[in-house]
C-alpha cells in the first residue's frame, strides 16, 4: 500500500504552511500530496487566514517540489468550466514534469456556493454536469490539432478543441472519481476514471463498493483490474496514548471516535487498520492530516507506519 498526505486547507492554512507539509512529505518518502477543493471552513471556528485555491496551490507546489505527486480530492465541478479546467491541469502537469492527478467531483457543500456566488444546482444536475465534465476534460487531453475534440451535451458544448496545451503524462494525467454512492459513482469511475476513491468509509462499505465497482466495470466492458481502488482516512497517530490524546484534542476529535472511523492510535494500531483496507483491495491510503503545523506527526508516520505497509 502506498501512503499519500491529504490536507483540508479550508480549515485554515496559508500557502507557506501547505508548502511546508508538501516538502516534508516529499522528504519523508510519501507518495503524494493532495488537497481538498473548498472555499469555506467547516465545523465553525476561526476561518483565518482564509481559503486558498486548489490549483493555484498545486501550481506553486509543482515548482517547489521535485518528486512527490500532486492532486485534488476532489476538484469541485461547479467551480470551473471543463475546457479551462483541462488547460489548467495540463499546465500544472507540465510545470511539475508530469506529477499531477485530477480528482473531480460533483460538489456538495452548498454554504460555500452561497458565500462565493457560485450556482448550486440540484443533485441530479450536478451529477449530469460532472459526467459531461469528465467526458470533456479527458476528451480534450486526448485530442490533437490533427484530431480535434467536439462534444454536444445538455450543459456543455465543445467545438473543434485541438487539445493544447497537452499534459506531459500521456495519454492523460490520472483521473480520480470519489464518493460513497453505490451506483452513480462506480458507474462514472468505470467509464472515465483511473481510480475510485472511497472517503472515510466503514470497512464493510468499502468492501461492498468494490463489488459494485467490479460490476460497473463489467457493464462498461472494462477489466475491473484496471480501476485502482483507494481509501481516504483521517489519521491521528501517537507513540503512546498521551500523544494520541494530544493530537486528537488538537483537531477537536476524540480518540475513540478516531479509532472507530479513521486510522488512529499507536503506530501498530494504524498499521493494523490500514492492513484491513489493503486486504479489502485498497492500493493507496490518503491520510487526512488535519493539524498542518504538526510536522512531527508526519515524521512518526514515515518512521513507523510507512515502512510497515509499503
CATH architecture: Alpha-Beta Barrel
Q: Assess the beta-strand content as a share of residues.
A: 15-25%
Number-wise, the strands total 12
CATH-assigned homologous superfamily: Luciferase-like domain
CATH topology: TIM Barrel
Q: Which geometry do the CA atoms define?
A: globular
List the quaternary state of the chains.
single chain
The end-to-end span amounts to 5 Å
**Structural class by helix and strand composition:** alpha/beta
The number of distinct structural domains comes to 1
Q: Quick one: CATH class?
A: Alpha Beta
Strand order of the largest sheet: 1-2-3-5-8-9-10-12
User: Total number of helical segments?
Assistant: 11
What fraction, in percent, of the residue positions are helical?
A: 40-55%
Low-confidence stretches: none
Question: Residue-averaged pLDDT, rounded?
Answer: 97
The major sheet is characterized as: 8 strands, parallel, barrel
Rg estimate, integer Å: 19 Å
Order of helices and strands: EHEHEEHEHHEEEHEHEHHEHEH
Explain what the structure shows:
With 310 residues, the chain is an alpha/beta fold. It has a single domain, classed as TIM Barrel. The protein is 44% helix and 19% strand. It contains 11 helices and 12 strands. The strands form 2 sheets. It has an 8-stranded parallel beta barrel with strand order 1-2-3-5-8-9-10-12, surrounded by 10 helices. It has a two-stranded antiparallel sheet with strand order 6-7. Helix 7 links the parallel strand 9 and strand 10. Helix 1 runs parallel beside helix 11, helix 3 crosses helix 5 and helix 10 packs across helix 11. The longest helix has 19 residues.
Amino acid at each position: 500500500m502506498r501512503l499519500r498526505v491529504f490536507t483540508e486547507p479550508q480549515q485554515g492554512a496559508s500557502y507557506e504552511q501547505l508548502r511546508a507539509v508538501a516538502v516534508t512529505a516529499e522528504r519523508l518518502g510519501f507518495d503524494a500530496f493532495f488537497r481538498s477543493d473548498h472555499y469555506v471552513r467547516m465545523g465553525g471556528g476561526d476561518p483565518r487566514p482564509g481559503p486558498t485555491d486548489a490549483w493555484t496551490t498545486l501550481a506553486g507546489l509543482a515548482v517547489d517540489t521535485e518528486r512527490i505527486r500532486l492532486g485534488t480530492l476532489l476538484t469541485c465541478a461547479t467551480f470551473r468550466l471543463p475546457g479551462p479546467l483541462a488547460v489548467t491541469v495540463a499546465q500544472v502537469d507540465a510545470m511539475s514534469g508530469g506529477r499531477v492527478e485530477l480528482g473531480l467531483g460533483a460538489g456538495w457543500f452548498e454554504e460555500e456556493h452561497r458565500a462565493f456566488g457560485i450556482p448550486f444546482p440540484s443533485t441530479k444536475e450536478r451529477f449530469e454536469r460532472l459526467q459531461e465534465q469528465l467526458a470533456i476534460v479527458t476528451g480534450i487531453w486526448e485530442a490533437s490539432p490533427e484530431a480535434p475534440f467536439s462534444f454536444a451535451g445538455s450543459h456543455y458544448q465543445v467545438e473543434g478543441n485541438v487539445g493544447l496545451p497537452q499534459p506531459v503524462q500521456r495519454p492523460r494525467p490520472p483521473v480520480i472519481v470519489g464518493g460513497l454512492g453505490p451506483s452513480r459513482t462506480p458507474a462514472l469511475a468505470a467509464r472515465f476514471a483511473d481510480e475510485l476513491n472511497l472517503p472515510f468509509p466503514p470497512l464493510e462499505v468499502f468492501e461492498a463498493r468494490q463489488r459494485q465497482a467490479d460490476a460497473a466495470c463489467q457493464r462498461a466492458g472494462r477489466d475491473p483490474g484496471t480501476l485502482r481502488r483507494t481509501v481516504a482516512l483521517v489519521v491521528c497517530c501517537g507513540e503512546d496514548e498521551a500523544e494520541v490524546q494530544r493530537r486528537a484534542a488538537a483537531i477537536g476529535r476524540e480518540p475513540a471516535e478516531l479509532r472507530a472511523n479513521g486510522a488512529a492510535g499507536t503506530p501498530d494500531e494504524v498499521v493494523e487498520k490500514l492492513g484491513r483496507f489493503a486486504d479489502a483491495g485498497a492500493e493507496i491510503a490518503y491520510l487526512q492530516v488535519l493539524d498542518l503545523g504538526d510536522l512531527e506527526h508526519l515524521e512518526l508516520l514515515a518512521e513507523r507506519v510507512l515502512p510497515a505497509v509499503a
